[in-house]
Amino acid sequence: MSRDTGGRPDPGRAPVAFGLRAVPRLFEELQQPGSGSRRRALASLCGLMLDPERLHQTVRGGHSFLEQLKVLLKDEDPSVRGETCKLLHLLSGHSVGREALLSSSLLPPLSQLLDDHSSSCRTNVHRVLNRLTLLPAGADALLSLVPKLMLKLKEEEEEEEVQVLLLSTLSCVSRLDALPALSSDGVSLVGHKLSHRSPSVRREAAAAMMALSVPEDGKRQVCEKAVLPVVVGLLQEEDVEIQANAAGVIMYTVIITAGKQQCLDLDVVPVLLRLLSNQRREEEEEAERRQRRKALVVYTLRALTSLAEAPDGRRLLLEQLPLLESQSEATEEDQDIQRAAQTVVRAVTWTP
Questions:
Q1: Spatial distance between the Cα atoms of 276 and 91, rounded to a whole number of angstroms
Q2: Cα separation values, 86 from 69, 188, 202, 216, 346, Å
Q3: Other CB atoms within 10 A of residue 105 CB
Q4: Rounded CA gap, 148 and 153, in Å?
Q5: What is the average per-residue pLDDT within 317-346?
Q6: Which stretch of DSSP H or E encloses residue 146?
Q7: With contact defined as beta carbons under 8 Å apart, do 295 and 244 qualify?
Q8: Contacts of 152 (CB under 8 A, 6+ apart)
Q9: What does the alpha-carbon distance between residue 39 and residue 81 come to, in Å, rounded to a whole number?
Q10: What does DSSP assign to residue 144?
Q11: Cα–Cα distance measured from residue 31 to residue 67, given in angstroms and rounded to the nearest whole number
Q12: Sign of the alpha-carbon torsion through 143, 145, 149, 151
């Protein structure tokens, strides 16, 4: 936010030319000696990036503009590095900016700043990386960074926002390919965050764990590394997204025999059924909240379908068949929910 200087020039920013010359002129000033002039030019550019037209002009400038920032990411002055990361964060707020960053050579030097001693610099780097994952090409470009990101996850001193961004980035990348994270002890490291004091961190950790539990090796690691007891505990949270992500982990893990047995030993069936029962009682709530609960209900029903394949699971579900049938027969239900409920009923009532 710009400071109110009573009409006087802001000493923290470089004077800005009018019209189309503003952006090129400021990029010319970035090449001038003296960190003070570079800081002022960067501050002015950050202000201009709030204008979509100026942002597009910067992107259209191509590598001639963006490549200049590569040198600034290695500047000796931490404030210059920080302002450069802030500028890239503003650029990454638009799809055209994300595409331009991915086509540039800025990602390697930017990722090196994950270890910068400036916390604001590190935070802006995480913001940029997280926004890049909004594009499939961005998630793919970050796959090679997964081992480094996993190392950062060990650093407890990082503030809450950074941990949320980091886990969200890992979640997006792992949905594309979970193997790099699984090879970097991802289940243990992400599992540790499931008990974090912050609900936001727990929510993103559960989302990342769900992505890691998709491959066969991920399911096995979830079972071997005592993650399921914590995940089952998350089903008791009030946050619907945390519940849904936890149900998603269970949904994937109970596909294998070890996952089924562990969840049955943890008495998860009554917990899942209670979630369905609560959903039925709240069916009159507003449409927006019902939509947010859809993932939770679908994941829960799919988890119950897999648990019905085990004799003990099927026995428990037969006792609650009326609840499952009411879910499958309710005409007002979302079709995805209705189909998932019908699949559970068939699994529970199937006879060889």
A1: 43
A2: 11, 32, 27, 40, 54
A3: 12
A4: 9
A5: 86
A6: helix 146-153
A7: yes
A8: 114, 158, 166
A9: 9
A10: G
A11: 12
A12: positive
Burial of 185 (0-12, 13-18, 19+ CB in 10 A): middle
Rounded-to-integer distance, Cα 174 and Cα 274, Å: 30
Residues in Cβ contact with 192 at an 8 Å cutoff, skipping those fewer than 6 apart:
none
Question: Six-digit token pair at 34?
Answer: 């003296």
pLDDT score at 332: 61
Which amino acid, one-letter code, is at 203? R
Q: How far apart are CA 51 and CA 154, in angstroms?
A: 38
Nearby residues of 60 by Cβ (< 8 Å), 6 or more positions away: none
| Average pLDDT for 297-307 | 96
The pLDDT of residue 224 is above 60: yes
203 CA to centre of own chain: 9
State the pTM of this model: 0.88
Q: 184 with 146: CB under 8 angstroms?
A: yes
CA angle 123, 129, 130 (to 5 degrees): 90
* C-beta atoms surrounding 35 within 10 Å: 14
For all residues of the chain together, what is the average pLDDT? Answer: 88
Question: Which two tokens mark 335?
Answer: 């079709």
If you search the block for the tokens 């004077």, which residue do you land on? 15
- What's the chain's length in residues? 352
User: At residue 15, what are phi and psi to the nearest 5 degrees?
Assistant: -60, 135
Sequence-separated (6 or more) residues with CB below 8 Å from residue 21: none
The span from the CA of 110 to the CA of 117, in Å, is 14
* Sign of the C-alpha dihedral computed for residues 250, 253, 257 and 259 taken in this order: negative
61 φ, ψ (degrees, to nearest 5) = -65, -15
- Ramachandran class of 306: left when φ > 0, alpha when ψ lies in -120 to 50, beta otherwise: alpha
